[in-house]
Design brief:
By secondary structure, the protein is mainly α. It is 56% helix and 4% strand. A 3-stranded antiparallel beta sheet has the order 1-2-3. The longest helix is centred in the first third of the chain and has 20 residues. It is elongated, with a radius of gyration of 23 Å. The N and C termini lie far apart (66 Å).
């Protein structure tokens, strides 16, 4: 392992142990830095030799590969955080990424479903353990605004059916407790008490949502189920894994909930992150106004 590889390994340990970043976040940093390392290694440049022009060449290469401005910004952000760590640890004496600006990116609004589309998506007839799981999972996500990563990490003990509460560990190891609505509570009760045991194979575990092998459902598995249901329900609105989370927040705002409450429910550290849903709500309002006879 050379100095460059060792520095990346130490940085990843720092993110996991000191910063307590989630596994997905750390994986994104590692991917970006491995890509950056491979580029500089191919040019024969060591960690200590890298200058501002070497980083600019790297960014030009990303642009040449048709990488979007948003992805390039993420790469720059990863490299910048990496160099800050190296300075703190005195692994380098100067920061070569200083004065390199992030490309200007257009902020896109999250995609949300209408209330009618959500109702169609959640209209699942329970006929077996899999449909019971799917209904419980989607009802819970829409009722609580959980992130996909939070949803698939849930354990049975995290759900209190008597108190109608779910406990989750969000970003930065911040715990929050969220109330569960009647629809989600009913679906969860059916799944936990009667159907989850049918998905367990030879190995017992305490994961809440299980796949057909009896293991914890993955992010990819969740999204596959979501897309399949959307096709069956003829929902044409573009999907992302967080579509139900975005819909939860926007619909709450439309019904008069205040931003601070939505911020707490979503687990946002900064309210400016939550404020994007006010723009989504306004855009939907403009879109609906087009149907006015004198608009």
């Amino acid at each position: 392992m050379n100095d460059f590889e060792r520095a990346i390994a130490e940085f990843i340990d720092y993110l996991l142990i000191d910063k307590k970043y989630s596994e997905n976040t750390v994986m994104a940093y590692q991917h970006d830095l491995n890509h950056y390392y491979a580029f500089q290694q191919k040019r024969g440049i060591s960690l200590q030799q890298i200058k501002r022009d070497d980083i600019k060449l790297y960014l030009k290469a990303l642009k040449k590969d048709n990488m979007s401005d948003k992805s390039i910004s993420r790469h720059i952000s990863s490299i910048r955080t990496f160099y800050k760590f190296l300075l703190i640890e005195k692994i380098i004496q100067r920061n070569p990424i200083d004065l390199i600006e992030l490309p200007k990116t257009k902020k896109s609004l999250p995609t949300v479903l209408s209330v009618a589309e959500v109702n169609r998506l959640l209209d699942i007839t329970v006929v077996d353990a899999f449909t019971s799981r799917n209904k419980a999972m989607l009802e819970l996500m829409y009722a609580t605004g959980l992130r996909v990563s939070e949803l698939i990490r849930l354990k049975i003990k995290d759900v209190d059916l008597e108190q109608a509460l779910v406990k989750t560990m969000g970003k930065g190891s911040k715990e929050r407790v969220i109330p569960i609505g009647d629809y989600a509570l009913s679906a969860l009760t059916q799944y936990i008490r009667y159907d989850r045991s049918k998905l367990i194979k030879r190995k017992l575990n305490d994961d809440l949502f299980l796949n057909n092998h009896g293991n914890a459902l993955t992010r990819q598995g969740f999204f596959k189920i979501l897309k399949q249901l959307a096709r069956e329900k003829e929902i044409t609105t573009p999907f992302s894994p967080h579509t139900l989370r975005h819909s939860f927040a926007t619909h709450l705002l439309d019904q008069g909930a205040d931003l601070r409450s939505i911020q707490e429910l979503l687990g946002h550290v900064d309210i400016s992150t939550t404020q994007i849903y006010t723009h989504v709500s306004q855009e939907l309002l403009k879109e609906n106004y087009k149907h006015h006879p004198h608009s």
